[in-house]
Amino acid sequence: MDSIIVSGGTPLNGDIPIAGAKNAALALMPATLLSGAPLTLTNVPRLSDIKTMTALLESLGVEVTSMQGGKVQVLSSHAMTSTRADYEIVRKMRASNLVLGPLLARHHEAIVSLPGGCAIGARPMDIHIDALELMGAQIELRDGYLHAVAPGGLKGARVPLRFASVGATENVAMAATLAKGTTVIENAAREPEIVDLVRCLRAMGAQIEGEGTSTIEIQGVEALGAATHPVVTDRIELGTYMLAPVFCGGEVTCLGGTLDLVTSFVEKLDAAGVDVSESDRGLTVKLRGDRPRAVDVVTEPFPGFPTDLQAQMMAMLCLADGTSKLEERIFENRFMHAPELVRMGANIEVQGGQATVHGVARLKGAPVMATDLRASVSLILAGLAAEGETRVNRVYHLDRGYEHVEDKLSAVGARIERVQER
Ligand code: UD1
Questions:
Q1: Residues 86, 88, 94, 96: what is their CA dihedral angle, to the nearest 10 degrees?
Q2: 125 CA to middle of ligand 1, Å?
Q3: Does ligand 1 have an atom closer than 6 angstroms to the CB of 94?
Q4: Model confidence at 332, in pLDDT bands (50, 70, 90)?
Q5: Residue 354 — φ and ψ, nearest 5°?
């Protein structure tokens, strides 16, 4: 297993290219299951989660051809061999559950392992199941697997979601494209990754509208066809690298970034004293004074502040002038980075879903442990500011969601390297 070593204190200057969104690609890839015709995805990020989804789709008989080092993928489900998503793959990545809706829609059956526990909370599947049952699916849990059938096919329905779940919205939107009649998803998630999926489904021939609003309406069609679709920019990678110059000075342009992807995040940066400007090339970021100011943050579904940027924001607020309050409303157990940041000299109190961060003037390098994807990168950011060396162990989490983090940061002047874990 690898570790990343960061030596803090060097200002960062230059451009960081932002990849295609992991979370969009993980929903777009299973969309191939809806059609026998090829789906070509461009701007695909090169990440281990994408490899996991590739392995899952291949286990179902999907042909996946990678080009340009994995940046372009052609997926074809013309010769499916299975409708069973095995525990051995699903347990590695919750997004594997996104095969459920498409398999049910086209093959009228699916056996999908429940993902099981996850470091940031229980993350059940009840919203997905309730929604698909409203569309006529019969779903039973046996041996840790969801056994789902839709004899005669799925039927359009009014599908109100009790929470605007990203995954459930994606599963239902995909399933409804081939259902008989009209489906209306109420309280749908509005994340840019949903918008991206809907645009791709439309390119495949789906009759679907309302993406980016709380109501998505889908008129089922007989079959979907071939399409080529570019994956939207990764707003979480974007937000992460936007924070980098706040930790150690300098000015960084995140290439391909646009304000509409990170509006609520940029509002908080502005309040914290960070300048963000948009140009044709992307978003340029610079800290106005010597230290950011304290701000309060509450995570919410899009367009609110994203939970996937909470750990990185907390790392920044550790160095802010004043006391900040962070409230995590999406996942119940998502402050595992706090004790690691405390090891670097931060002053944080956590109580349930709330954290109080008393800003300190400096952090100190330390060996720390990455517990999940976004926690890992928050520790690397903290390491950019810390005096001395920070060693982030167990970085396999990082490789799930960040393409070549050490290359991207060293290209703008950071002292960062990947080493074999001791
Ligand atoms: C997606 C993202 C993840 C992000 C999250 C919230 C992908 C691959 N992952 O995850 O990075 O952090 O959105 O923005 O896109 N819930 C239930 N029952 C369900 C489904 C969800 O109770 O059936 C709960 C979850 O436990 C969690 C909350 O709803 O507390 C949000 O989950 P959801 O929006 O579904 O997130 P994911 O799609 O899993």
A1: -40
A2: 9
A3: yes
A4: confident
A5: -125, 140
Q: Are 212 and 323 in contact (CB under 8 A)?
A: no
SS3 371: coil
- DSSP letters along 288-343, please? SSSSPBP--EEB-STTSB-GGGHHHHHHHHTTSBSEEEEE--S-TT--THHHHHHH
Does the beta carbon of 157 sit less than 6 angstroms from any atom of ligand 1? no
Helix (H, G, I), strand (E, B) or coil at 229: strand
For 204-218, write each residue's pLDDT tens digit.
999 999 999 999 999
Are the C-beta atoms of residues 68 and 74 closer than 8 Å to each other?
Answer: no
Domains by residue range for the chain, with CATH: 2-15+234-420 (3.65.10.10), 23-230 (3.65.10.10)
Tokens of 291: 């230290």
Residues 6+ apart with CB under 8 A from 162: 127, 130, 187
Q: Which of 194, 221, 193, 196 is nearest to 207 (CA)?
A: 221
Centroid of ligand 1 to alpha carbon of 127 (angstroms): 10
The number of residues in the chain equals 422
pTM of the model: 0.97
For the stretch 190-246, pLDDT in tens is: 999 999 999 999 999 999 999 999 999 999 999 999 999 999 999 999 999 999 999
| Residue 374 Cβ < 6 Å to ligand 1 | no
Q: Note the pLDDT tens digit of each residue in 47-70.
A: 999 999 999 999 999 999 999 999
Catalytic residue set: 118
